[in-house]
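To close the section, here is one more complete example, presented without commentary so you can practise reading it yourself. The ligand is flavin mononucleotide.
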Amino acid sequence: MLEVNLSGLKLKSPIILASGILGVSFSSMKRVIDAGAGAVTTKSIGPKPRKGYKNPSIIEIYPGTFMNSVGLGNPGIDDFVSEINEIKKYNIPLIVSVFGDTKEVYLDVATKAENAGADAIEINISCPHAEISCIGIDKALTFEIVKFLKNKLTIPLFVKLNPNVTNIVEIALAAEKGGADGVVAINTLSALKIDVNTKRPILSHGSGGLSGKAIHPIAVKKVFDLYNTLKIPIIGCGGIDSWQDVVEFFLAGASAVQIGTALYNGVEILTDINRGITYYLKNNKFNSINDIKGLAHQFKTQKVPDFD
Ligand SMILES: Cc1cc2nc3c(=O)[nH]c(=O)nc-3n(C[C@H](O)[C@H](O)[C@H](O)COP(=O)(O)O)c2cc1C
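Output:
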């Protein structure tokens, strides 16, 4: 009942681990799968090992809402290949998130990941506190990198969208035109938290990316808007911490979802969410996730009445 086919990836559950949370080691990714995820996305992996920013790099600012500026710390693709090999021994559907500073570097990292057994590539062109965010705010650059990678890769290519733009649909359309197999909406929202006593930003980097509970309605609106225009699948991401949050994404038009921040409270939430969605589908006499996809679009907003 929960199976989905996401651009050729057959998933037993539509819930995917989001990039950056528990996605650096084989053992943590396996834990997520054992708890019920349909696939895992790795931490964004670059060409070389990278330390990331100093602490504090992640803080909880309201219950369930976080700000981070971890700064794309990662082991580098050459070291990471051994984790990919390990994951693939268990046949776990694996999406490798990649980043670089030029399209050639993206390609090099993505090709190494594909050769090591990745089932799909997600390109991170959207981290709000790293230099790569400039690609994801520009439709021409987005089109160019997607087309370049699609020409060379054989596995599906997903594009992680930056919500910190005026018009996310136009960037997503550029990705679709470039040949993307899907988009992930959304990455974290650019944010700043200042300590009133020290009078300086709390995160060591200064600003950071907002994730978790508070961003869920924003992410749902982005998915809703994207569904009106895009033909390729949309993977909803942002603030999921219950099955209702997931169902909302499907009603808005998502084909699958990703979950990140909520997993800091334990991976068991995945089991509860799968159970909740199954219950919802059965209770409402639906046979599959596909049956509820985009249903919220039947709603027509009101016209502002004319003055008498
Ligand atoms: C600590 C942390 C690290 C993250 N690292 C990455 C990353 O490396 N690449 C990426 O594309 N997104 C990264 N993200 C963004 C998440 O994948 C996700 O888009 C965002 O957190 C919204 O989902 P959530 O509210 O369920 O966490 C990170 C998020 C957090 C909280």
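Once you have examined the tokens, check your reading against these statements. The longest strand covers residues 58-62. Residues 269-283 form the longest helix (15 residues).
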